[in-house]
Amino acid sequence: MSTKQQYSISHWPDTEELQKRLYRLANELPIHQIKRSKMDEYLKHFDEKCARSKKITDRAKELIPGGVQHNLAFNYPFPLAITKADGAYLWDVDGNRYIDFLQAGGPTLLGSNYLPVQEKVIEVIRESGPVTGLFHEYELKLAEAIHEHMPSVEMFRMLMSGTEACMAAARAARCFNGKKYIIKIGGAYHGWSDQLVFGMRVPGVGPLDAHGIPAGCYQFTNEVFPNDIDALQKRLEENEKDGGTAAVFVEPLGPESGTRPVLRDFNRNLRDLCDRFETLLVFDEVVTGFRVGLGGAQGYFNVKPDLTVFGKCVAGGYPGAGGVGGRKDVMSGFAAGLAGGPGGKRAFVGGTLSANPLSCAAGYFAIKAIEETGAHLKAGAAGDRLTKGLVDIFERNRLPFVAFNHGSICHMETGAAMLMDIKNPNIFKEVGQRKKVMEEMGAALMAEGVITLAGSRLYCSMADTDDVIDDALDRLDRIFGHIEIKQG
Ligand SMILES: Cc1ncc(COP(=O)(O)O)c(C=O)c1O
């Protein structure tokens, strides 16, 4: 079998066992934190070694709300100003080098700033500039490459972000079947549009984060708990009495890139239910697309969604990255001009800079490079090695922390704030404390020269050789001998 048909997930974790351990960590055991004396050492490190970052980002606080523009860039005790990215490493303005397990939030499967793609992108910009407003052949080449690997994507519409792509998918679904509701799996992230800032992070919170959004905007958004097929069926039945469900949205590995992992057959069961209720199934492959394998999570699970949402993954880490693809009959609703979709209705989308030559060429050449190098498999092997090392470290130090991975997407749960149960009576008291513990973990990791997503998620790339992973594990090992139970 060619690497094109192989997937990065070497084994599917025992999800039921994992869920029990994650539940216990987040809801039953006392909070474990880094010892205060060790944490003080780490904080001192930032004052001494990251002074220029501090100066720049302090100044930024005066002009940029919160000082950083991106949720991923918010780091305790202060954000780092990064100047250089190459393969497995990042460098900050003070000249410190870090092993990069953020990988821009997932898209740089080839490693940061991968030269062969960068060179092609520069060629395209030299020739046509980043944008003309007119058609460029790379739009077609990208759509063909996606279709080749994900046959469910019969047609593809490029947009600028995953948020836009999710909005567009909801609109196309409603335009196609005329139904009213959309259902998401609680805890998942589908961007920040008015109707999807709902049920975020912890399943069951509904509109908790929907500040500045009128209730009418999420009036027709429902959430159901991950893995709860019965609840989904009930919700679909209820909605049938009131305009029906246009689409079910799912992150196929589980909410937040698998932070709450799904059972192996969950997606298949979703497909069956959606078929029964004539509801469209939307896979959000913003992170999993190409990373799980060139065929995406849909190829791995062998489940065909009606629509697939793409985001950062679709332009190989270059900006202007989003899109939606799927069934021709549904996608026809996006047709430009007056033609429109079924019944002449058009699911209006726009975006002056969408589908620009830069993003499309970057996406096309990144997919070609993944095909040629088998980057997804190399990154998956790195994820396995990293996770195994973490499990060993936790066992050796008798810690209740949980590490698991789906190929190159690794989870290291310590504070486990996102895994709290909405029914836990301590949730409002503890969630802030647990977030703080995670922030401190992120800071300790950075002081040891390792950058992660929020101190709990680690994306591997093709650049993570065994040496890089072993070096990272040595650095992580230095933290986990210094853990104590948090008092009070
Ligand atoms: C699964 C998922 N869907 C949607 C989005 C939103 O994408 P964007 O940040 O490009 O708007 C993200 C972003 O992290 C994501 O992880």
Q: Would you kindly provide a brief summary of this structure?
A:
40% of the residues lie in helices and 14% in strands. The chain is an alpha/beta fold.
Can you describe this structure?
It is built from 15 helices and 16 strands. A 7-stranded mixed beta sheet has the order 5-11-10-9-8-6-7, sandwiched between helices. A 4-stranded mixed beta sheet has the order 2-3-4-14. It has helices at residues 15-27, 36-49, 51-63, 115-128, 137-149, 162-177, 229-240, 255-258, 266-277, 296-301, 328-331, 357-373, 375-396, 427-447, 466-480, and strands at residues 32-34, 82-86, 89-92, 97-100, 155-159, 181-185, 221-224, 245-250, 280-284, 307-310, 322-326, 402-406, 409-413, 450-451, 457-459, 483-485. The mean pLDDT is 96. It is an alpha/beta fold and 488 residues long. The structure holds pyridoxal-5'-phosphate (PLP). Residues 105, 161-163, 166, 189-191, 251, 284, 286-287, 311-312, 322 line the site of pyridoxal-5'-phosphate.
Helix and strand arrangement:
Elements: H1 15-27, E1 32-34, H2 36-49, H3 51-63, E2 82-86, E3 89-92, E4 97-100, H4 115-128, H5 137-149, E5 155-159, H6 162-177, E6 181-185, E7 221-224, H7 229-240, E8 245-250, H8 255-258, H9 266-277, E9 280-284, H10 296-301, E10 307-310, E11 322-326, H11 328-331, H12 357-373, H13 375-396, E12 402-406, E13 409-413, H14 427-447, E14 450-451, E15 457-459, H15 466-480, E16 483-485
Parallel strand pairs: 4-14, 6-7, 6-8, 8-9, 9-10
Antiparallel strand pairs: 1-16, 2-3, 3-4, 5-11, 10-11, 12-13, 13-15
Helix pairs in contact: 2-14, 4-12, 5-12, 7-9, 13-15
This protein binds pyridoxal-5'-phosphate.
